[in-house]
Amino acid sequence: MTHIAPLAVPAASDTPEACGFSPCEGGICAAAGISAAGVSAGFRRNPQRLDLALVAADEPCVTAATFTTNRFCAAPVTVSREHAADGRARAVVLNSGNANASTGEPGLESARAACERVARELGCDADDVLVCSTGVIGVPLPWEPYEAGVPAAVSALAPTAAGAHDAACAVMTTDTYAKEVSLAGDVPQEGGGTVTVHVGGFVKGSGMIQPNMATMLAVLATDAPLTADAARAALSAAVGESFNKVTVDSDMSTNDTCILLATGAAGGEKIDLAHPAYPALAAAVRAACVDLARKIAADGEGATKLVTVTVTGAATDADADTVARAIANSPLVKTAIFGHDANWGRVAAAAGKCGVPFDQYGVDIDFLGVPVCRGGLTVPMDEDDMLRRFEEPEIPITVDLGMGEASTRIWTCDLTRDYVTINGDYRT
Known about the structure:
By secondary structure, the chain is an alpha+beta fold.
């Protein structure tokens, strides 16, 4: 059999190592000036489940945020969008078990009251508190858990890895584990030398995942002294290449929120868009977001595999994204992966249906690093070898459209029987 080389995949520039950062301990509390806590407040039936998280800076700090574009946006999204408009915040309070979505004026009142309750405990303005919720839609949010839980969370605040982990656990719904990241690296100063800065955060998300702004609920923090413009630019760019490139089931949440707090506690010069440290810091924020985005896809409801769909050779970035998303959202592709079936025809069909123009006889496809289609035609493969490759936790699919130089990646997962069970039983 003639050897055919696998397709070239663009090198990833969003790993910690690529931007000069390394993993470190601490989660969101790796950033100096940040404390976190997670407590059981009573939002969930199980008193053993943590369900109220609090992240607080030592003082109001630079803040950037992105929110869902879903027209059925939840009350906390409306309130947090208002409070984040000035680019400053002191704290973020998050609950699981109830989304406070489609709850009308009472829902808005609850979200605002939650901010006021936290502000009273921390001694700051209510406008300096952001609020997030996740859980069942259309159910009134009870107030009692906030009344008891906020003081408990404030008392439990700690600038430690344990505090960070508890906060990450408190926002979980159908997630099977807490998703955290923390990075450290040295950034240059205009006057010479370097300053060590940190980026940390957590995210929740497992189902109802195809954001168009950020992700389900994500809170990030850095101790770099970013300006407001630099924080907004870094977060926006990071979100576009990470959380907006994840799909579990093509459904966008009503509550999607991503927040970045920049305390400046690392010291050093203010980092604006023109500062020599900005590219490295922005790359670190992107690397943290990519790490969390991949964890969302890998932990998709019922998932057994993380799937990375890479499309190259597209005429435009938009074409690359459309084709990659069509493949990643295809139930036939996702079930084939669950069945360990290297059925590249399902990939080709998904790419061909989405309206992007290309010549089918110019398309090449690799499945699990093995060429399976060249010029739109079958390349014989060793089925036993493919079954062995399916034992890997990550399944790469690469498609070259042969139309140009644009490329992209989308992260998704397989579609299993458990996904149906989890969502069929979600409210019952």
